[in-house]
Amino acid sequence: MISVDARRLLDRIRDLGAIGRDGEGRLVRLAASDADRQGRDRFVGWLREAGLEVAIDRMGNIFGIWRTPGNAGQAPILIGSHIDTVIDAGIYDGCYGVLAGLEAIETLKASGFVLSRPLAVAAFTNEEGVRYSPDMMGSLVHAGGVAIDEALAAVGTDGSVLGQELASIGYAGDEQPGFLKPHTYLELHIEQGPVLEREGVPIGAVENLQGISWQRITIDGVANHAGTTPMSMRSDAGHAAARVVAFLHDRAKASNTPTVATVGTMRFEPNAINVIPSRAVFTIDLRDPFEHRLQAEEAALAAHLEELAAAEGVTISVERLARFEPVIFDSRIVELIEAAAISRGLVSKRMTSGAGHDAQMMARIAPAAMIFVPSAGGISHNPREYTEDTELVAGANILLDVVTRLAT
Ligand code: HGY
Ligand code: MN
Ligand code: MN
355, 192 in Cβ contact below 8 A? Predict the structure, then answer.
């Protein structure tokens, strides 16, 4: 049984994690930013050092491909994830899966194994969706879920246009989106939640992924003097926004379901200490493993917004930013993950992914599944994100074993 080169993998994770630090030392490699370019350049350098064919599509998705004369005509096994990050990110989210994918390919390439299929590793553009909505955008385009021209026209939170930014960082590639049709898709990722650590289980065999609903809400009230305006005469966009946040939080918390609700961004206008806000703009992230419940949560929110507009004397508009239904992964691949864990004497646990991943898009065009490793304290999207080296290596070896099983 061959194993990955642990030192090479761990060094690369830390090397990539040092790229894209801002003035305060925070890791910020937002999609198509110059920091993202630096991370991409480093990854492409490793692909070339490994002797892989490098292909970049119009969406900036980066692929490293290893074909042999004996298998070049076959559909490849694709291992993917992302190397863009959120703001003030940890070093493992996405990057771990991409670098473990490269590591598995390099290990197999050096092993002398005769593989029946090419192997490829992908770093998909804009998985996080922090600068441009929706998230998982690069893999969504690859899977045919949105047209390339629509995606490249996406306007960022900073007013930039994705297509122009990709061109300016040199990653507006030539390949047509979806040019690489995978036989199967695998993604290794940190769990980003508390389950595996809490149960002392090193490997998650991810069998499904919850649905995601992103909306941007704009509440318009009337700016007025904070001192002279009686409470009964206010159209206070800020107060109305606060009531929505409380409504979502209390409702999700009171439900005995896994529904989660998050208001992650909010801004007021004119944003002055002594002016009643005339406008509040904020985003809502709703998720649930079951489509009917996610729809029920969206309907409850819509009804609440209607009541609130009347009660607060404000107008409320809603913009949909992303909407993805729950996804069931391929049970045969999930079983291969479990079998690989047993072969390495590791316990595994079937689980649902709370986070969105490129695998949920690739599942539209190929059998797909994910492997999780524990997150310390369940923390992610936070610089305190951490996974033990032994756990990172164990996950990479499971990925290697499943790929080997699928390709021989
Ligand atoms: O939003 C997500 O779950 C992922 O981190 N993009
Ligand atoms: Mn991720
Ligand atoms: Mn993430």
Answer: yes
Domain final residue pick, 263, 295, 324: 324
Taking only the tens of pLDDT, the chain with its 408 residues reads 899 999 999 999 999 999 999 999 999 999 999 999 999 999 999 999 999 999 999 999 999 999 999 999 999 999 999 999 999 999 999 999 999 999 999 999 999 889 999 999 999 999 999 999 999 999 999 999 999 999 999 999 999 999 999 999 999 999 999 999 999 999 999 999 999 999 999 999 999 999 999 999 999 999 999 999 999 999 999 999 999 999 999 999 999 999 999 999 999 999 999 999 999 999 999 999 999 999 999 999 999 999 999 999 999 999 999 999 999 999 999 999 999 999 999 999 999 999 999 999 999 999 999 999 999 999 999 999 999 999 999 999 999 999 999 998
Which ligand 1 atom lies nearest to the CA of residue 135? Answer: 6
Q: Looking at 299, 324, 349, which one is the last position of a domain? A: 324
Rounded distance, CA 118 to CA 105, Å?
Answer: 10
User: Closest Cα to atom 1, ligand 1: which residue?
Assistant: 356
Q: For residue 381, give the ligand 1 atom closest to its CA.
A: 5
β-pairing, 260-262 with 211-220? Answer: unpaired
* Cα 398 to Cα 121: distance, rounded to the nearest angstrom: 16
Instruction: Compute the distance from residue 392 Cα to the ligand 2 centre, in Å.
Output: 15
The total number of structural domains that make up the chain: 2
Residue type, 298: E
